[in-house]
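Tutorial, part two.
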Amino acid sequence: MNVHYQPIVELETGAVVRVEAFCRLGDGALGQVAASEFLPLAERSGLMRELTQGVIVQVLTDRASWRTQLPVAINLSQANLFESDFPERVTSLLARFNVEPSQLTFELNDGIQNSISPEERQAMNALAVNGVRFSLDGFDFSRSRFTALSVTRLPISEIKIDAKLLLPCGPPDHAVRRSMAFARDASLDVVVKSVENTREIDALRAIGCTLAQGFAFGVPMESATFASRMEAFAAV
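Running the prediction step on this input gives:
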């Protein structure tokens, strides 16, 4: 298992303000196996506890080696939130690496809205009260059941919108505008991910989007490569 990193960029300045960690499984015959392929198996096999622990340790270890120790975002399985000691283990790891909790964001799939339990909500609150941030990945207001009121009942500080919601040409799709309006009403940050070209960058700037991520700014890369290229991202 290894971890790759992709920058999250401030559109106005081009500065890298955060980095998202992507877990990859290396195989000599198959090459790199994407998380979408092996994570469901890990969940069914009851291995998410060990896998997530390993990823967090690796991310914090890599971060400590960078000249600029950026805030990091890590994808989290909903199954982790059901572990009774998960908040305590995360807090312990942050203290071990001398990382402020506000420097860590856990990204959860937007689908959590359909199945979150009281225990999972309690785990989120226990982490958030110490400063850990939560982001809803794959948010789309047109199909989301969240409202500005309901989202405030969870410690969510950000939504991530996929750039595929942008029209192939012309102004951004209504789904993007509505999702951004929702975020403003709920006092949430917005990151548009999977941004691939200057047309999408220009469209996002035109509607006031401030943070973006995607191949237009850099592919996910190993820690050493990311660290060596970090300064170049600011010139995007």
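The beta strands are 2-10, 16-27, 31-34, 72-75, 104-109, 133-137, 158-162, 189-193, 211-213, 221-222. In part three we will examine how such features are distributed along the chain.
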